[in-house]
Amino acid sequence: MTKYFKVCMFTCALFFMSISCTGPESSQPKNIILLIGDGMGLTQISSSYYYSDATPNFSRFKHIGLINTSASSHKITDSAAGATAFASGKKSYNGAIGVNSDTVSIPTILEIAEKINLSTGVVATSTITHATPACFYAHARSRGMYEEIARQLTISDVDFAAGAGLRHFTSRDDGANYYDSLSAKDVILDTTSLAAIEDICAECKYMYLDTGRAMPRMIDGRGDFLSDATRLGIDHLSRDEDGFFLMVEGSQIDWGGHANNEEYLTTELLDFDKVIGLALDFAERDGNTLVVVTADHETGGYALSSTPMDDGEWSDYNKVTGTFSTGGHTTTLIPVFAYGPGADKFSGIYENTEIFHKMLEASGW
Ligand code: MG
Ligand code: ZN
Predict the structure, then answer these.
(1) Quick one: the chain helix, strand, coil %, rounded to 5?
(2) Class of residue 56 by CB neighbours under 10 A (exposed 0-12, middle 13-18, buried 19+)
């Protein structure tokens, strides 16, 4: 009986070990989806609780942290230094695209994923050559070098890209036309609407390059572009059995903040929240996906303030008014939300560069 019991214990232990090593709750994610709400501070996030009847998807996270976002050159970061910190784990100067303080190129998490044969993608509502997405696939001394950044995207291994900025590929000072050369290389290209997944072969690269100077604002009728592009990206990249890295940016939350335009800001924020929802839906089904949501910095010094009353002395605590303290960025700590295998690593208060290191530590890439 004792012997039988021991054998049984051993078998059971093996059984549970195999479950914990290979089951859907494994501690190393196969896929990482990084969602960046440009300019999305705590008040921007809070606004989704004031301006939406549904419970925002932020409420689905259990692991939450805060980051300090300063750049190497300035106390207040721009989006280039902010995204370089996330993509490459180094503090750099404002304007830096995937380079360190000495303008030397530093490897990005997207390139690290490509090196081990994973699939990769970038999605944005700005141009795809704008600072935030650029920092994941390009290296340039200045964020304004759009044509050079576009050139680097065409020679990168990025498997899926969607955003605006066709002109940086076709109407260039050097006369090159990357639309033609990419088509010749069997990259599937669209400029007016996103393809259906059935029309993208599993091994193919896909690029959607909108003709606009940016994607339209939500208040100008952008519709579901960001959700649709993210869904298409996940559908395409998840065909790779080895795993994928996808960065999606809600680029224009920042622009609403710069414009001190609350309607612009909150409509962009609620659009971004929908993307969080669909990324979490995928991660729940998949069981092997780490979702990280954060921002490079806050924009506008946005506050949900009590409204001054007529007497000027008292404020109405039942009437919330969006107010702004600057047309630029602020240095407030920024929330980080994580879901999936390795999500617990993202709790605490730390530097923005740690996002890179924690993603690598979690995934083992
Ligand atoms: Mg940006
Ligand atoms: Zn900005």
Answers:
(1) 40, 25, 40
(2) buried
Q: 201 — phi, psi (to 5°)? A: -65, 145
From the CA of 143, the nearest ligand is 1
How far does residue 181's CA lie from ligand 1's centre (Å)? 27
Helix locations, the chain, DSSP H: 2-22, 42-50, 79-88, 109-115, 131-137, 146-155, 167-170, 178-184, 225-237, 253-258, 262-286, 354-363
Share of the chain above pLDDT 90, in %: 88
User: What average pLDDT score do residues 204-213 get?
Assistant: 96
CB neighbour list of residue 364: distance below 8 Å, 6 or more residues apart:
28
Give residue-wise pLDDT tens across range 45-54. 999 999 989 9
- pTM over 0.70? The answer is yes
User: Please, what is the end-to-end C-alpha distance for the chain in angstroms?
Assistant: 46
The average pLDDT across 119-148 equals 98
**Is residue 32 very low, low, confident or very high in pLDDT (cuts 50, 70, 90)?**
very high
Give the chain's domains with CATH numbers: 52-297+327-363 (3.40.720.10)
How much distance in Å is there from the Cα of 60 to the middle of ligand 2? 27
Quickly count: other Cβ atoms within 10 Å of residue 220's Cβ: 9
How far away, in angstroms, is 18 Cα from ligand 1 center? 42
The Cα–Cα gap between 126 and 38 comes to 10
In the reported structure, the alpha carbon of residue 48 is separated from the centroid of ligand 1 by a whole-number distance in angstroms of: 20
Q: Which residue in the block uniquely carries the two structure tokens 């939406």?
A: 52
Percentage with pLDDT > 70 across the chain: 93
3-state secondary structure of 361: helix
**In the predicted structure, residue 12 carries a pLDDT above the cut 90:** no
DSSP 220-251: GT-TTHHHHHHHHHHHHHTT-TT-EEEEEEET
Ligand 2 centroid–CA 58 distance in Å is 22
The interaxial angle of helices 262-286 and 225-237, nearest 10 deg, is 20
Contact 149, 174 (CB under 8 A): no
Which pLDDT tens digit goes with each residue over 240-273? 999 999 999 999 999 999 999 999 999 999 999 9
